[in-house]
Write a structure and sequence with these properties.
It is a single chain. This protein is α/β, with parallel strands linked by helices and about 525 residues long. Helices cover about 50% and strands about 15% of the residues. The chain has 15 helices and 15 strands. The strands form 3 sheets. Strands 3, 4, 5, 6, 7, 8 and 15 form a 7-stranded mixed sheet that branches. The chain has a 6-stranded mixed sheet with strand order 9-10-11-12-13-14. A two-stranded antiparallel sheet has the order 1-2. It is elongated, with a radius of gyration of 26 Å. It starts with 5 loop residues before the first helix and ends with a helix. About 5% of the residues have low confidence.
């Protein structure tokens, strides 16, 4: 026998799937913030459909996990298609990232569902979801760090250097926290009134065994939205003010630098073109032109020269002779077949070797030679300090922070990308300049060569797929090196976020036990 309550229960069961739909919508919005559309500014609101649905319908952790998985599948699946990875790598990466979005969905649902029972009410819950997001992204880049911080969704914010200066204090995890916190606080400030209820004693149960909103306790209305609105406006003002205060203003000086690059398609025999031919016909003319335009440092691309066994000494002598002849410092990317590793050869303007750096972070499954030991190289460039990393190294913060702590004013970063990944990699590279406060001279094969300030501004860039062999030259302003983040690292975000989540969990457990005792 049917009752008048059955249609309402059926409607609520259907609505309990709305967070999954909203998750897919947010996944699509996040994908649109990335390449090729690159509407990065949409990230300021892209999370709202998903977060609103979790706050409005209060699903259980299971349904929350499904909503997060829907978000992750749409977002990361789309990126995997754009990157044109081999099918197994694409599926593995998309699946791996989706797991973290599902974990975040489950945790966020749990936090929202009990917001009235936690410390700080809606504001405490909103900040808790942001803390959970930062910790999940920390796990994302730590458990299986395929691409390091390039895996973090806020990578696109490098398009707005004025908005990311806070990363010199917090790193990219702080940016994740801010993007989430602003939108979770917006959801809390616009929290539904009595029309939406949290599961209570009279709640209906969905087929998945989760409570759906019914006749239980009403969600706080306008009277309790005030603190969330105040917190939202306060955080917004804090972030804007911090970015303004952290924007470097006092220049130590400047140095004219150049980066040269090409694609393997431009070489007579492709990637395996003999190094002497590449050096004489492609690299050297670009180095000479850079010097003629006043460059004091010229950087060449990663593995731009493949040096066979027994020819390393000849290679070094030729590079040193050119540096001495032109009066320019060189940072030359090369592959040493004798040692089976990937290197930068630093030569001073007087023609003397200044050191060599070996690439430390190799691309999982794609690079199978000997990695470096992480030993940093810092040398003089006039009154300034010059360091170096190679390609994948700048997706990670260990070496990058080390150079910040070592007081490097600028870094030479030879890079070898490929057509589909080149935009994403340059975008992420700009964060290293900001979070450790040094200029970057990036020379690429098969990608973008660029000169980036310690503020994250791109002074000059060239896409070698569009221009072929080419160079960029710019007067690079230099600022006081190092940053708070370079000294402290991710713990500046991880520790307080973990502490707040522990407080949320402990208070919820304590109040639940007290409620059972009263019952």
């Amino acid at each position: 026998m049917s009752t008048s309550s059955e249609p309402m229960i059926e409607r609520e069961r259907a609505r309990s799937w709305w967070p999954v739909v909203a998750g897919a919508v947010t996944g699509g919005l996040l994908f649109s913030t990335d390449f090729p559309a690159h509407a990065w500014w949409l990230q300021a609101v892209a999370l709202l459909p998903w977060l609103w649905s979790l706050g409005r319908w209060r699903p259980g952790p299971g349904r929350g996990a499904l909503s997060g998985a829907a978000l992750g599948a749409v977002y990361t699946g789309g990126l995997s298609v754009m990157l044109k990875f081999p099918i197994l790598l694409a599926l593995g990466l998309a699946g791996y990232l989706t797991v973290f979005w599902a974990l975040l969905g489950a945790g966020a649902a749990w936090i929202w569902r009990g917001s009235e029972k936690g410390p700080g009410g809606l504001v405490g819950a909103a900040l808790g979801v942001a803390c959970l997001a930062a910790l999940v992204e920390w796990l994302n880049v730590s458990v299986i760090p395929v691409w390091g911080t390039a895996q973090v969704f806020t990578r696109v914010w490098s398009a707005a250097p004025w908005a990311i200066q806070i990363t010199s204090v917090t790193g990219v995890l702080g940016l994740v926290w801010v993007v989430f916190a602003l939108q979770t606080l917006a959801v809390a400030a616009l929290a539904p009134g009595a029309g939406a209820a949290t599961p209570g004693a009279g709640a209906a149960t969905s087929g998945a065994g989760e409570a759906t909103p019914g006749a239980g306790e009403a969600t706080p209305g306008a009277a309790r939205r005030g603190p969330a609105l105040v917190a939202l406006l306060g955080l917004l003002l804090l972030v804007v003010g911090a970015n303004a205060l952290l924007w470097p203003r006092e220049r130590l000086g400047s140095v004219k630098v150049a980066a040269v690059g090409w694609t393997f398609e431009n070489l007579p025999a492709g990637k395996r073109t003999p190094w002497r031919q590449t050096w004489e016909q492609v690299a050297l003319p670009l180095v000479r032109e850079s010097a003629s335009r006043g460059a004091k440092l010229v950087v060449t691309p990663e593995t731009g020269l493949w040096i066979p066994k027994g020819e390393a000494a000849v290679f070094r002598e030729r590079v040193a002779r050119v540096a001495r002849e032109l009066g320019v410092s060189l940072a030359v990317g090369w592959f040493d077949h004798a040692r089976n590793d990937n290197r930068i050869f630093f030569v001073g303007e007087e023609g003397k070797a200044r050191g060599e750096y070996a690439k430390t972070h190799l691309i999982m499954t794609l690079e199978k030679y000997r990695p470096g030991d992480g030993q940093r190289v810092v040398t003089a460039l006039g009154p300034y300090r010059l360091g170096g990393m190679i390609c994948q190294d700048d997706n990670f913060t260990d070496l990058a922070r080390g150079y910040g702590k070592s007081g490097a004013h600028l870094l030479a970063v030879p890079t070898n990308d490929w057509r589909e990944v080149r935009h994403y990699h340059l975008e992420n590279s700009r964060f290293r300049a900001v979070d450790s406060r040094y200029g970057v001279v990036r020379a690429a094969t098969n990608g973008w060569s660029a000169i980036v300030t310690a503020r994250g501004e791109v002074l000059a860039r060239v896409d070698h797929f569009a221009k072929g062999p080419a160079l960029v030259v710019a007067e690079l302003p230099l600022y006081a090196p190092g940053s708070f983040y370079a000294r402290v690292g991710d713990w500046v975000v991880v520790a307080p976020c973990a502490l707040w989540l522990c407080v949320l969990v402990l208070v919820r457990i304590r109040r639940a036990r007290a409620a059972r005792t009263r019952g």
